[in-house]
Amino acid sequence: IPVLTYPEALGIISKDKYTIAITGTHGKTTTTAMVAKVLMDAGLDPTVIIGSFLLDVNPSTGSGRRTNFVSGRSKYLVVEGCEYCRSFLNLHPNILVITNIDADHLDYYRDMEDIVSAFVELSHKLPDDGFLVVDSHAENIQAVVKQSRAQNGDFETLRLPDGFKLHIPGAHNLLNAKAALGVAKILGIADEQALASLASFRGTWRRFEYRGRSKSGAFVYDDYGHHPTEIKTTLAGTKERFPDKKIVVVFQPHLYSRTKQHLSGFGSAFKDAERVILLPIYPAREEDPGDISSDMVVSEIQKNGGQAELVKTFEEAAQKANEYAGTDGLIMTMGAGETNKVADILTE
Predict the structure, then answer these.
(1) Strands (E), the chain
(2) What is the pTM of this model?
(3) Could you tell me which of 3, 35, 195, 249 has the fewest CB atoms within 10 Å of its CB?
(4) Domains along the sequence of the chain with CATH
(5) E strand or H helix at 32, and its extent?
(6) Alpha-carbon distances of 32 from 48, 49, 105, 321, 336, rounded to whole Å
(7) Residue 55 and residue 269: Cα distance in Å, rounded?
(8) For 278-304, what is the mean pLDDT?
């Protein structure tokens, strides 16, 4: 019996489809979901494969249960491509969106140049009539653009209508929406229709997902952010949406290698949080090297003037977050590990 990896299976599906691949260090899940919603609302009936659950469910998909897969009948495939281990090179894109390129997965990549080379290699898989859709002003993107053999589109230059708002906050999500709008333009979907879809977009599982209220009355949100850039932009968006609320963050670092490589970045990423409660590092695929810990993240945050502390259990994290947030605060559980379990406790 042939055994395929997930990326290899995606490659087989992609080969026979008109593939719209959404990639980038940050924002690819949200952007994939945005593009999927725009195409579904436009009646293009795409197949969708994404790294999180879709919160917007097209009536044609059935019961409304959460899913990360939609089986469409058209030629279109909307797929999230992950750069880890260059796995996205299995895809055969016709439209390639790169949201941004940042330093991550340095347990696999040697350095930033190595990361950029993977995106360049993927862009070379575009056919002559393919499209590369990027923010040309984003750091590290120009190296890809200069070596592109396809038609290039700059989504950052698109202008959203005055007063346009998303359900999810932050300037970074408006950029994601512009990327989706760029794809819509390529496919001939009218701006008015695409913008209406984006305005009603509700997000995805664990991406600024509203979970309810705590027993004390605080708002509870859950977010997958696990890189300093993601944390900083998500909290900035949260502060923008809720300027008068006290923000309490429960954060679980993900991977020993990432925590060590971005230690100073984590120290300055929480400036919009009044308090940060740390859980022990979520190891995922790694063994504890013994030279990095959540205690060190606490120290870095404190060096930057923040209030941070370490707890050992989800229950203790929930208790302290509830105490600090009070009746009118906001609790954000963050991380790619199991911090959503803290949100479960807070809202049960």
Answers:
(1) 18-23, 47-54, 67-70, 76-80, 93-98, 131-134, 151-154, 209-213, 219-223, 247-251, 275-278, 308-310, 330-334
(2) 0.89
(3) 3
(4) 6-199 (3.40.1190.10), 209-347 (3.90.190.20)
(5) helix 28-41
(6) 8, 9, 20, 32, 18
(7) 27
(8) 97
